[in-house]
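Researcher: Please predict.
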Amino acid sequence: MAMSQIQSAHRRLPGFVSWGRIVVIAAMLLLFGQSSAPAVVITTIPEQTAAPPCAPPIDAWLISTRHLGCTNGAFPATGPALRYWQRVDNCGPWQPRTQADFLAAAQEVRETWIAIHGNRMTAQDAVNYGGQVTNSLVPGHKSGLPLRTITWSWPSEQIRGLVADVRTKAARTPSESFYLGWLVNQMPSPTPVVYIGHSFGARIGTGTM
């Protein structure tokens, strides 16, 4: 039946109608001649754009010596009793961790940035300082290694008297270098370490090296 309709349509077409148009008409007749034909759904594919590369995750740590006294490097073979916190991917709340947690994580070779704050900083100031350092440096990270950031929180709260304050904190810096030196020595030797220090923090970093 469809063929007879095509032939009938062809006899009625003017001479200037091209064969291409005849084929289109034939296809239309076939389509509408089948009442059970499924509906035609046209799907528009959105323009594809390349996804930006994923940034390597950050292993962020907060390590404190605010509860410790001074030392000349004489602490147990197991290391000083540092206090540890970790924040996964540099976001969310700080989670308490153990020395074993840090030592296990430290075996993975990561580019490690250690932010050491200066004088007259509370524990919360230290957290804020470490976050600012991390957020300012991460966008420029191009080494290809995943990142580890360590905020080093040491007892630098302001004490009464300018001279007494400065002398007390200056006397504290060698102990902090011993503590931090022990920590860095627990990392595999290929680990690249960058010290970022402000004021007495710079003195602690150079003492560590």
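Model: The beta strands are 58-64, 83-88, 95-97, 111-116, 147-153, 193-197.
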